[in-house]
């Protein structure tokens, strides 16, 4: 097996190329070493991806990676493995893995056929209304969309994963659920991150007796690292799905338990809402970047649209020359990000309800117009930026894992219950947490959601509508073949996190583990600041401030579990070190 991480040889400028050659020649002369020394320079990577030849799985939890990898080893395909991982994460990582939430799956087959997206985003219950998160005076009641039963959208995960399996898998739903049921019933040894998460979310979870009983010991303490944690109610719910198919969730006992939970606490989801829930097969957003084809999530996610938009703006700049995380590079990225997030606030919403000018927003011509407004030397204050004017509407229209199998099929999946542990509300008797995805709607046009994202009319609450998302499961193809499979959690930061991994690979020639680990930056128009992770040098920050940027160092952003496929077919997995349980493994 090739032990060397795959590297992109980036296009170097003539001076850079001749400079490097001179340096290598000089070292060779001085040390008497043959040109093979060049290899040694390439070995200087600090982060190394997992490498394998037949299949690769990258998830945010080792147990989910293991069960999905076993599916691949047993002859299952990437879709089988992804669905198995999705259900396993609902057990091992209840803070984000879920059956009570929703998400998006991108599937790109090894045969080169057009990639497909499965939209299993939650929907507003039929009794939802535009002003449901406002008081009598029309002021937004902040926590109503976050920590009450009204916060929950109708969950989509079970039907989305089942649909993916039905369309492209070889396993039955029962087979894909078996490892999750075993993990829930027999329990698993909890890692430190599990205990820490439950301590952090204690206030939110303890308010609800079913959450308290599910996630803490009878004496109220959290399960400690090394102890075995079992979820019998969840095991029974998963078993009902295994026995009855999606009806085991959307009808019968599970649906009754969800509806009863809602009735007890003035929630809106009814048995009818559950029975009516349908996932949707959509076309992903498609763009190109420096000769690569980029496929990412279409509305009701904003992710793909704005990744393509930002890449279009940046494509005309010599980003490789500017260098990774230099002040020049960060400045241009931040300026492009601002423009995209301003457009997001105005135009993006569920295309089943509103017209979104997708072609306009993702066109190269519109990017050219936007680029014209960027000053390479000076930040433009967010207050001077409004949504642009893309070509008019066409007539129609958080946790991430990546899997690639031996046939070259790729799956990129991001799903979520929104906050860590979602609403904090466990369905009594069913053992799973409900999402608080309704906060992703704009509770009132112009009022930011929990991620500071401003939404407009296009994202107002309407019955049956899907709330706008930033989730960006992405697959990049090169010469028609799957090349990069990536995506991340992180709320509003998902778009920029995913963008940077794409650029780290394509522009900066990083191997996938280095691309995933590298410090990230983020700008979302409002607040008007570049948010950075630790690891960007203080003099770079000073240069950015000199150009008029406000720069704020904050906690780590995203957890981007990625796979890159080398030209010889070798699979490289990059697990994000920002999550201690992240795991990329192949065979
Ligand atoms: O759909 C969205 O954009 C958000 N609900 C995602 C939330 C998220 O990524 C939280 N994870 N860190």
UniProtKB/TrEMBL annotation:
<dbReference type="GO" id="GO:0036374">
    <property type="term" value="F:glutathione hydrolase activity"/>
</dbReference>
<feature type="binding site">
    <location>
        <position position="491"/>
    </location>
    <ligand>
        <name>L-glutamate</name>
    </ligand>
</feature>
<dbReference type="Pfam" id="PF01019">
    <property type="entry name" value="G_glu_transpept"/>
</dbReference>
<dbReference type="InterPro" id="IPR043138">
    <property type="entry name" value="GGT_lsub"/>
</dbReference>
<feature type="binding site">
    <location>
        <begin position="469"/>
        <end position="470"/>
    </location>
    <ligand>
        <name>L-glutamate</name>
    </ligand>
</feature>
<feature type="binding site">
    <location>
        <position position="121"/>
    </location>
    <ligand>
        <name>L-glutamate</name>
    </ligand>
</feature>
<keyword id="KW-0865">Zymogen</keyword>
<keyword id="KW-0378">Hydrolase</keyword>
<dbReference type="GO" id="GO:0103068">
    <property type="term" value="F:leukotriene C4 gamma-glutamyl transferase activity"/>
</dbReference>
<keyword id="KW-0808">Transferase</keyword>
<feature type="active site" description="Nucleophile">
    <location>
        <position position="398"/>
    </location>
</feature>
<dbReference type="InterPro" id="IPR055262">
    <property type="entry name" value="GGT_CS"/>
</dbReference>
<protein>
    <recommendedName>
        <fullName>Glutathione hydrolase proenzyme</fullName>
        <ecNumber>2.3.2.2</ecNumber>
        <ecNumber>3.4.19.13</ecNumber>
    </recommendedName>
</protein>
<dbReference type="GO" id="GO:0006751">
    <property type="term" value="P:glutathione catabolic process"/>
</dbReference>
<dbReference type="InterPro" id="IPR029055">
    <property type="entry name" value="Ntn_hydrolases_N"/>
</dbReference>
<dbReference type="InterPro" id="IPR051792">
    <property type="entry name" value="GGT_bact"/>
</dbReference>
<comment type="subunit">
    <text>This enzyme consists of two polypeptide chains, which are synthesized in precursor form from a single polypeptide.</text>
</comment>
<dbReference type="InterPro" id="IPR000101">
    <property type="entry name" value="GGT_peptidase"/>
</dbReference>
<comment type="similarity">
    <text>Belongs to the gamma-glutamyltransferase family.</text>
</comment>
<feature type="binding site">
    <location>
        <begin position="416"/>
        <end position="418"/>
    </location>
    <ligand>
        <name>L-glutamate</name>
    </ligand>
</feature>
<keyword id="KW-0012">Acyltransferase</keyword>
<dbReference type="InterPro" id="IPR043137">
    <property type="entry name" value="GGT_ssub_C"/>
</dbReference>
<feature type="binding site">
    <location>
        <position position="440"/>
    </location>
    <ligand>
        <name>L-glutamate</name>
    </ligand>
</feature>
<comment type="pathway">
    <text>Sulfur metabolism; glutathione metabolism.</text>
</comment>
<keyword id="KW-0317">Glutathione biosynthesis</keyword>
<dbReference type="GO" id="GO:0006750">
    <property type="term" value="P:glutathione biosynthetic process"/>
</dbReference>
């Amino acid at each position: 097996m090739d032990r060397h991480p795959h590297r992109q040889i980036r296009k170097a400028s003539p001076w850079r190329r001749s400079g490097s050659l001179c340096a290598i020649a000089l070292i060779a002369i001085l040390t008497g070493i043959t040109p093979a020394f060049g290899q040694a320079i390439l070995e200087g990577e600090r982060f190394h991806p997992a490498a394998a030849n037949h299949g690769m799985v990258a998830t945010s939890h080792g147990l989910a990676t293991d069960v999905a990898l076993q599916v691949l080893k047993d002859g299952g395909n990437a879709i089988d493995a992804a669905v198995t991982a999705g259900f396993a994460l609902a057990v091992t990582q209840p803070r984000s893995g879920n059956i009570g939430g929703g998400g998006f799956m991108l599937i790109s087959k090894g045969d080169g056929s057009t990639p497909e997206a499965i939209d299993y985003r939650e929907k507003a219950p039929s009794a939802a209304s535009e002003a449901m998160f406002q008081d009598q005076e029309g002021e937004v009641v902040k926590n109503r969309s976050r920590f009450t039963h009204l916060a929950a959208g109708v969950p989509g995960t079970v039907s989305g994963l089942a649909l993916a399996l039905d369309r492209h898998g070889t396993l039955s739903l029962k087979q894909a659920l078996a490892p999750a049921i075993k993990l829930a019933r027999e329990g698993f040894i909890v890692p430190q991150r599990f205990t820490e998460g439950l301590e952090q979310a204690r206030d939110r979870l303890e308010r609800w007796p079913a959450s308290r009983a599910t996630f803490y010991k009878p004496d109220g303490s959290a399960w400690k690292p090394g102890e075995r944690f079992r979820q019998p109610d969840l095991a029974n719910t998963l078993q009902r799905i295994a026995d009855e198919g999606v009806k085991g969730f959307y009808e019968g006992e599970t649906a009754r338990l969800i509806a009863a939970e809602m009735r007890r606490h003035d929630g809106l989801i009814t048995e009818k809402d559950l029975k009516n829930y349908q996932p949707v097969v959509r076309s992903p957003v498609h763009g190109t970047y420096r000769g690569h084809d980029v496929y990412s999530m279409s509305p009701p996610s904003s992710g793909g649209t704005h990744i393509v938009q930002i890449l279009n703006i940046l494509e005309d700049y010599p980003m490789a020359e500017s260098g990774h995380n230099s002040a020049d590079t960060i400045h241009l990225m931040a300026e492009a990000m601002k423009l995209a997030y301003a457009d997001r606030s105005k135009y993006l919403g569920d295309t089943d309800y509103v017209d979104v000018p997708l072609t306009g927003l993702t066109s190269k011509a519109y990017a050219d117009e936007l680029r014209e407004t960027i000053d390479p030397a000076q930040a433009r204050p967010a207050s001077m930026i409004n949504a642009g004017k893309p070509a008019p509407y066409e007539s129609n229209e958080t946790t991430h894992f990546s899997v690639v199998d031996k046939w070259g099929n790729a799956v990129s999946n991001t799903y979520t219950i929104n906050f860590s542990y979602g609403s904090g509300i466990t369905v009594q008797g069913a053992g799973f947490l409900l999402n608080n995805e309704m906060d992703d709607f704009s509770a009132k046009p112009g009022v930011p959601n929990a991620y500071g994202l401003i939404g407009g009319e296009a994202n107002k609450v309407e019955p049956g509508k899907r709330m706008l998302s930033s989730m960006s499961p992405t697959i990049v193809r090169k010469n028609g073949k799957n090349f990069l499979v990536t995506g991340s959690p992180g709320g509003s930061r998902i778009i920029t996190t995913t963008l940077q991994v794409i650029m780290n690979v394509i522009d900066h020639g990083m191997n996938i583990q280095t691309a995933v680990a590298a410090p990230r930056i983020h700008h979302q128009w409002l607040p008007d600041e570049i948010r950075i992770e630790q690891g960007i040098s203080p003099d770079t920050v000073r240069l950015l401030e000199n150009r008029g940027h406000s720069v704020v160092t904050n906690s780590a952003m995203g957890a981007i579990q990625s796979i890159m496929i080398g030209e010889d077919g070798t699979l490289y997995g990059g697990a994000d070190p920002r999550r201690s349980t992240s795991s990329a493994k192949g065979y």
